[in-house]
Amino acid sequence: MTTADPPRRRISARVRILLWLLVVMAVALTAVAATTRSVLLREVDHRVDRLLAQETGEFTNFVHEGVDPHTGERFTDADPLLRLFLSRQYADPDEELLGLIGRKGRGPAKKEQSREPRIDHPLAGDPASLKAVFDSPDATGTLDRPGGEVRWAKTVIEADAGHPEAAFVVAFHPAGERAKADGVFTMLLAISGVALLMTTGIGWVVAGRILKPVRLMRATAAQLTEQDLTQRIPVQGHDDVAALAETFNGMLDRLERAFAAQREFVDDAGHELRTPITIVRGHLELMGDDPAEREETVRIVTEELDRMSRIVEDLLLLAKAERPDFVTPGPVQLAELTADVFVKARALGERDWCLTEVADTEAALDAQRITQAMVQLAQNAVQHTVPGQRVGIGSRLREGHIELYVADSGPGVQPQDAAVIFERFRRGTARRGTRATGAGLGLAIVKAIAEGHGGRVELRPTDGGGATFVLTKPQQEGTARS
Fold first, then answer.
1. Which CATH superfamily hosts domain 330-474?
2. pLDDT, tens digit (0-9, with 9 covering 90-100), for 296-308
3. I want to staple 462 with a disulfide (CB 3.0 to 4.6 A). Which of 8, 84, 344, 466 is the partner?
4. pLDDT tens digits for 419-430?
5. Read out DSSP for 313-349?
């Protein structure tokens, strides 16, 4: 024995829309914040490079052009040169300007600086780092120290005989600038968080307004029953959701008409079948032992059962009319088809049958269905005429349409009946002929066959009195209903 899986919890469309919106916005805002931080850090690197190049450039220019104020001559010793230059400089908060004097391999023996640094772990207080910078063969570099990263640049002073080697060093501590970039990044993340919270509220309200017609559709669909299809959705606005609501209302209109037609059809079918059943039951209940009476009862019962069988067959045929393969058109010679219908119709009764005209053309028709419709019209003409009266069958081309018709010389159709005789189980308020035994489905079948070919059936008066039923369809190669 297997247990049913627990029902999956559904997430509403409103929540899904909001979640997707938040995910997209979170990704976008995070990308903006990260990109801004990356740009700021790159700008810090560029500014440090410019500052280092500027300071070393100024010192190089001073070495070439500066003079000792005590002698009026160019400097011959690095110590007074560095002292004088550094005394005229004012380092930035994250910057150190140092003068180093010593010998390579043993580190600087003496250092000068422009002023006391305002940095937590200055390079001037780190002998090991000073030695690494002083001994480095490079003009620029980076030191990764426990006290923080240092970007540096130096200008080596060529030593004269008897004077120690010296170097001017510019050291920049980028931690402060990078902390500012990180602060901007953190601020952007905080702003993004606030924006996401505001978006959540606004998105929840907006999504609710947009999806309100959808919720109304759901509520309306839940209230619909086979007995009550009158619920409709109020349409507001002109957007896609409003168009969806209009489409839904249109669908409900069609469903209401279809259910109404179905109920009417079932009621009419039940009424038509109830009559022969009642007749059969009554005769069987009253049947006696007389052989002649039994024979008459059997005959009546057989006729009624045959009528019930015809009603059921007609109902099945009308049900098939809703299928796309109800008709299968193919190339048909209209003259041959008309002649075949005429030959079959002549066996329906003693009438003055006349093949009035034939259209010598080829058309896309389902020969079997068209023959069925024309024979039904001929049978209808026989029922509403008497022996000897004229019934004409023909086909023709008229105004770009193919027409097949059956014209009788009976009493015609009353004007009030013309609008209803093609409906199921409707025979009109006045009978045209002698006696009719049908269930009122024949002309409905003819109408279904005509519409299946993309055409229609029309009722027209006959010259001299009577009724003419015409099957008409466009002459061009048409397609059957699909």
1. Histidine kinase-like ATPase, C-terminal domain (3.30.565.10)
2. 878 888 877 877 7
3. 466
4. 778 776 665 544
5. HHHHHHHHTTSTTS---EEEEHHHHHHHHHHHHGGG-
